[in-house]
Amino acid sequence: MPYKVSYDTNDNIVIVRISNIATIEDHLTARKQAFKLCKENNCFQLIVDLSEMTFNKMTTMECFSFGESFVEPFIGLRIAHVMPVDSKSRADVRFASTVESNRGNFTGEFETIVEARKWLLGR
Fold first, then answer.
1. Structural domain boundaries of the chain?
2. Alpha-carbon distance 35 to 105, whole Å?
3. Which of left, alpha, beta for 48 (phi over 0: left; psi -120 to 50: alpha)?
4. Which of 16, 22, 80, 92 could form a disulfide with 26 if both were Cys (CB 3.0 to 4.6 A apart)?
């Protein structure tokens, strides 16, 4: 499975890790599981770790729709993206992040999960 979704009880953060070549269906399934954990734990902080994703096969429209889809269930969600290595994937993540931000969520892009966690926790 090219993704893992977990909940950090100490910091009240949902963490999504995408690895290898994930399909749009994998991303959508991971997002659904992340929203479920956020709702169950009254959590508004999310780390999306894409550092091990090898290539994103999403089109620009899919990136837009994916970014837009983060708004409906949780306005005000804080989303920290840990960036992939691939330059096209990085550009796609930035685009989706901008869409999320323009629709009411707080987003940031980071090189490491440590930086992402610090940002979410305000450190």
1. 3-121
2. 14
3. beta
4. 22
